[in-house]
Structures are given as C-alpha cells and as structure tokens.
Specification:
The protein is α/β, with parallel strands linked by helices and 376 residues long. It folds into two domains: 79 residues, SH3 Domains (SH3 type barrels, Roll); 223 residues, SGNH hydrolase (Rossmann fold, 3-Layer(aba) Sandwich). The protein is 28% helix and 15% strand. It is built from eleven helices and twelve strands. The strands form four sheets. Strands 9-10-11-12 form a four-stranded parallel beta sheet. It has a three-stranded antiparallel beta sheet with strand order 4-1-8, with no helix packed on it. It has a three-stranded antiparallel beta sheet with strand order 5-6-7, with no helix packed on it. A hairpin with a 5-residue loop joins strand 5 and strand 6. Helix 7 runs parallel beside helix 9. The longest helix is centred in the first third of the chain and has 16 residues. It is globular, with a radius of gyration of 21 Å.
C-alpha cells in the first residue's frame, strides 16, 4: 500500500469509528441519513449552519487566506456581515472573527447572504477577555538545562516540533496562532515569547494528521513521501526537517482502540527525542474516547501521560484539567448525519485558544538562548 493511500484509508476508518453514537453501537443496521432542517435557534442576529463536512474558518475572505480553525457540520454561527462580492460571511470565532464561504453554510428559509450588511458595518468585536486556566507546568532547572544542551548540540532555539492528531493539525493549533487568529492583547507578558518562537507557528509539521496515533510515529507508511525518506517515520522526519529543540507531544485521541499499546509507543517517542537532544513537552487531552468507545479504564491515556511526565521529569501541559473550566469541556458538540450525538473529540474554538495559551505560557519559561556562534 502506498503511503498516500494509507493516509486516506486510516482517515476513513477512523471517521467511521468516531461517528459511533454516544450511546454505543446499536444491534441493527444504521438507517440512511435523513434530510436535516435548519437547526439554529431563534436569534435577533441572522445565523448560518455549517452544511458540509471538513470545512475550515479563514482569516480573510479568500480561499488563499490561512485556515484558522475547523468548522463541523451542523454547528451554528451568528452571521455578522458579508464581503463586497457576496461570497464570504463574517462570523465570531473564538477570541477573534473568521470568514466562511457561502458554499459551506445554510441559511434559514427566506434568508440569504444578500440580506446581510457589509462586513465593515458590523458592530465592533467585544474586547477579548483574559483566560485564567490551570494546567501550566513549572519548568524545572533540569528541563531548562536540557534546553540549553539542545541548543549547544546544534538544535535551533525557539523551534518547536509538534506530533499529534486532528487537534494538533496546523489550522487548529500552531497555524491558528501564526495567522493572528488568537488575540494576544490580554497577555502582554507573552509578546516576547510569541516573537522568540515565531518560526514554530509558521511551520506545518509532517507528524500531525487526523487519526494519528502513537504507533504511527516511527512507521514510514504514514510519512509524507514528498518530504520524508523512504525508511523514515513521521517523527524522525519532522525532527530532521525542523531541527527543533522542543517536541510537543499531543497524542491519545487517535488511540481510542489501541490504548493498550499506548504507553510503550509513547515512551519510545519520549526516549527518541531525548536521545537526539530534543526536549519533550507532554500534553493531556480533553476527550474520553478510549474509555467511552474503546473500553479503557477511566482517564487511562491522560493518566499514562502524567505518569510518564513524572517518571522522566518532563513538563506536562494538562489541557484536560484546564478544559474542565471551558464550555462543553473545551470540545465541540458533535453529531453524525442522523443527528445522533457522538462522543466529542474535536476541540471547540475556546478549546483551541486555551491550548494555544497554555502552550505559550509553558514556552515562556524556556530560557532565552542565542544559537552558538559558528566556528570560522
């Protein structure tokens, strides 16, 4: 099987598995999807409902504009205005605003994009509020020294590589921040951190994709054949391409049915990074798929991540802890095509922003180091 085909197969299989209704798997065949009415509730502001799978919010009203977040089918958003061409709709999205194309949404009966005001006439966005969340680790002197050693060994200071699943893909995590879709105004103390790690937020990792799990880290089947060597797994490829000094590990959602092997694969990722003078930063997740669908003990994967963090003396960004204070636990409300609720696993807009914030607050604790001078 070619690597490009393998990527498509795993995504399709995972999509079927993760669309299981929240109540479990019924004993009879699933009925064909039924016609869905406009689902958004009554509001003084016109609303749009996302009407297709797999669309993304955009920073600007253009297909060439950066993607800054995932928009799931059946989600509703206030429609604040339209662009001059009548093709794009401005909506509130997390701490900022975003654009969605009219081809991806449905209006209520009798409503159309032409009835929206021009976007420049939309009321100003409310000032962003400062989030105060638990879950930020304290970097120990040992970890700070590991970072100094990484730079001394030739690793690029301020470069963070990411290995993760759908919630760590570029548009919903580093790319969202890099495109300016997370408002730093309430966090002036993080401006220097954002500048120091700016290159990280522009880089698209080859070790993140939907349904990515811990077992895939070293398997060349899942590598990008255009960027990686034929015998190179996604993680070795990403660390070679980025020359990162820090590796952010955000895995577990894709290990719903492979949770029994999760710890061994996760340890291998940690040890591979450490052996190559890269500082691992671990992160927990907000969903409970391995328990609700995979039959694992409660909080199994997060418990493994926390325990391995303690065992290796590494920082753990506890997003699961922070998510308890967010709407819907930091996760989107999700349905299948029959409008049955499924176990949520995609982070919502507030969850995306919280992950970015916790990451910046963690990176702020790494010492500022210039790369070593080149020998003449």
């Amino acid at each position: 099987m070619s690597r490009s085909i393998a990527h498509r197969v795993v995504a399709a299989v995972a999509a079927v598995a993760l669309a299981i209704p929240a109540g479990g798997i019924a004993g009879t065949a699933t009925a064909a999807p039924r016609a869905i009415n406009f689902l958004c509730g009554d509001s003084q502001t016109p609303q749009v409902m996302i009407d297709i799978d797999g669309t993304f919010a955009r920073r600007d009203n253009s297909w060439q504009s950066p993607e800054i977040g995932r928009m799931l089918k059946f989600q509703c958003y206030p429609a604040l205005g339209r662009d001059a061409a009548g093709e794009w709709i401005l909506v509130p999205y997390g701490s900022t605003r975003a654009w969605v194309n009219k081809s991806a949404v449905r209006f209520a009966d009798g409503m159309s994009i032409d009835q929206l005001p021009p976007a420049n006439q939309a009321p100003p966005a409310p000032p962003p509020k400062r989030l105060r969340l638990p879950g930020v680790p304290t970097l120990t002197p040992k970890v700070q020294q590991l970072y100094r050693d990484a730079v001394r060994a030739g690793r690029t200071p301020g470069m963070v590589a990411v290995i993760g699943d759908c919630n760590s893909e570029h548009p919903v995590y580093f790319g969202r921040f890099g495109a300016g879709a997370f408002d730093l105004t309430p966090y002036p103390e993080l401006q220097k951190t954002a500048q120091a790690f700016a290159a990280s937020f522009k880089r698209v990792s080859v070790a993140t994709s939907g349904s990515f799990n811990a077992a895939m880290a070293f398997d060349p089947t899942w590598s990008d054949p255009k960027q990686c060597k034929s015998d190179e797994g996604p993680l070795p490829c990403e660390l070679r391409l980025s020359n990162a000094s820090v590796l952010l590990i955000s895995l577990g959602t894709g290990d719903t049915f492979t949770w029994r092997d999760f710890e061994a694969h996760y340890k291998a990722i940690i040890e591979y990074a450490l052996a190559r003078k890269v500082v691992p930063v671990l992160m927990t997740k907000a969903d409970a798929l391995e328990t609700k669908q995979g039959g694992a003990p409660a909080d199994y994967i997060n418990s493994v991540v926390r325990r391995l963090g303690a065992q290796y003396g590494l920082p753990v960004i506890d997003f699961a802890l922070a998510a308890r204070q967010l709407p819907n636990g930091g996760l989107a409300i999700e349905h299948n095509d029959n409008l049955q609720k499924i176990e949520p696993f995609h982070v919502n807009e507030v969850g995306m922003d919280a992950r970015i914030l916790l990451t910046l607050q963690t990176l702020a604790q790494f010492p500022a180091i210039a790369p070593p001078a080149r020998r003449r």
